[in-house]
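--- STAGE predict ---
source: upstream dedup step, 1 unique chain passed
mode: sequence only
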Amino acid sequence: MHTASGIRQGPLSVDLIRTLPLLAGWFFLAVWLGLSGRLAAAGAPPIALGVTIVAPLVLFALDSRVGNPIFGGFLRLELPALIALQTFRIIGIVFVVAWLGGTLPAGFALPAGLGDVAVGLSAPFVAAAVAQRRRHHAVLARVWSIAAVADLVIAVTSGVLHSSTPLGILRGPVTTDIMAFYPLSLIPTFLVPLALLLHICAFRALSAKSSRPD
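--- STAGE serialize ---
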C-alpha cells in the first residue's frame, strides 16, 4: 500500500531502525575522517577518498543480495520521495562560495557547484510531476536522474583532475585538496555516495514502474 507521504506501508519501522543508525554512524565516520586528515593524499593517488565513495555502493550491492536488511529504509521510499530528497544538492553552492574565497579552482567549483544547485532546485518540481502523474512523468524522472548522476560523476572526476595528486593534470595554483578536510570532506565522503544510493533506488523504482501499467 502507498501513502501520500511517498512511503510504502509495511514493516517500515523495522527498516528505518536498521537504516537510520547506519546513516548516523556513516556520517560521524565521515566527520572523523575529515577531521583526522586521513583523507589527505599528500602527493599520492586519492585512494582514501575513492574508497569512501565506493564502499557504501559496494555495501548496498551486497545488502541487496541478502534481502536489504540494512538499506531497506531507502527502498521503502516511493519515487517522488527519492527524487525530492535530492533537494539537499543545493549545498553545492558552497563550491561557488569557496571559489569566490579563493580556496577552490573555478574549473572544479563552478561546474560542480552550479550543477548541484540546478539538480537541487529542480528536484521538487520533478518529484511533483511524478507524484501527480503528469504526462511523460516517468521519462522526465529518468532523464533528470541520468543528468543528476552525470553531474556527480563529472564533479568527482573534475575534483581529482584539479587536485595535487598524480592524477591532477588540470591543477593550477589553487587545487581541490581542501576537499579532503572537514567540513568540505563531508561532500565526497557522505553526501555524494548518499546521493548515488538514492539515485540507484530511484532507478529501481522506475524499472518497477515501467513493468506495470500506469
